Amino acid sequence: MPEDRPAALRRAAAAVAALVPELGDLGARFQDAGFELALVGGPVRDAFLGRTSGDLDLTTDARPDDTERLLAAWGGTTWDMGRTFGTIGARRGGTTVEVTTYRADAYDGETRKPVVEFGDSLEEDLRRRDFTMNAMAVRLPSLELVDPFGGVDDLVARRLRTPQPAPASFRDDPLRMMRAARFASQLGVDVDEEVRAAMTERAPTIGIVSAERVRDELVRLVCGRDPRAGLELMVSTGLADHVLPELPALRLEVDEHHRHKDVYEHTLTVLEQAIALEDDHRDPDAVVPGPDLVLRLAALLHDVGKPATRRFEPGGGVSFHHHEVVGAKLTAKRLRTLRFDKQTVKDVARLVELHLRFHGYGDGAWTDSAVRRYVTDAGPLLPRLHRLTRSDSTTRNARKAQRLRLAYDDLERRIDVLREQEELARVRPDLDGNAIMRLLDLPPGPLVGRAYRHLLQVRLDEGPLEGEAAEAELRRWWAAQPESRTQHTDG
């Protein structure tokens, strides 16, 4: 963030000036035709933050037909982004722009679909935007900064405010509440008290927003620099009750004897620790490059089964038996409700289901068979499971933390040894389906699948078998099957 207003203005001026060769010419064309043109929103905000923006959004008082004509003369390639909403796109060389006519929309309060009305004033167009930091513009070609709602000062102060009263802004578009949480995660801003109060008041209205739009904002939040800040804002305002209710449900009552840790705080710490274990995305050898959505969602949801499974034991303890199984089901259900894709749902739920498996490792007494099964069950998720399991240790007992860390170091070492010995990542039965059919004189069908699974289990339990030993094991298994006796009788 900029340290002061003068520094912010200098940084922004330099960033915008770098765009002048292309945008200055475009602004001059609109000006010569009698129209206004301004760079607006995210690109201006990012210029103040010293960040590069891939999107160049512009706004104008020209109507779409005039905009399209001027863009065609400037760039040659244009496309209709949504003429009804006033947006025309164009490209010249490596520069792509989207130009939208000033808007003065009205909302009915029942949906987030506005009654589209074009406006004639840049200031009024800026007033209808979500936050003051996005309600700034730079006129072209003059490079005059237009900041009627104090966006620069809010950026300097790390403060998130709305151009119009926050309740009215969120009434117009409830998705803005999710954006507020997302900006808290991405930009490290503090939310103004009026904004926080309006989010608390209007939280239930997020229900009129499509699950897909909510999901997209949640993904950006979770993949932000500080997801904890955004999630805490969602929980404290009640927004999470309507978007991700499993998260506030983790705030279990801590009994007077403090027989279990605060699961909600534990979860947020696990998320932070999982993020710290992500690989640098710039590293060509990265295994889990950050931000990794699947790992972060698994860390966030790994304990959601605890509220439903909590039991107070007679001896004074608290148990959460099978919470990983319950949690996997709850995770899959919530992610499907939010319209996540099938692979993400499957992967996150599987990690939640497996996150406790390591705790049976104890003092390293697992057999090689158990280690093989751990790897096989995790499959391609193993690198993420390593990181999730390590991040799940939040104990303040230094000796316990050290013991868990050394135990997992030992497990990973054994996995590496077995992988080198057996190419564990590609565990297959020692005989494939064709060999099984040839040796047992079977046609394709369920019996071949059963034989294949048996040999896979033997491989996991005993390691690889030599060719004759594998064939002998297959014949031994087949002799015990009722179908073999039927086949013999029929013969």
TrEMBL record:
The record, for InterPro entries, names: Bact_CCA-adding_enz_type3_sf, HD/PDEase_dom, HD_domain, HDIG_dom, NT_sf, PolA_pol_head_dom, PolyA_RNA-bd, tRNA_adenylyltransferase
Show the SMART domains listed in the entry: HDc (SM00471)
Residues annotated as coiled-coil are: 401-428
Which co-factors does it depend on?
Mg(2+)
GO molecular function terms listed in the Swiss-Prot or TrEMBL record: CCA tRNA nucleotidyltransferase activity
Q: Which residues form the HD domain?
A: 263-377
* Keywords tagged on the record: Coiled coil, Magnesium, Metal-binding, Nucleotide-binding, Nucleotidyltransferase, Transferase, tRNA processing
* EC identifiers of the protein: 2.7.7.72
Q: What is the name of this protein?
A: CCA tRNA nucleotidyltransferase
Report the source organism: Aquipuribacter nitratireducens
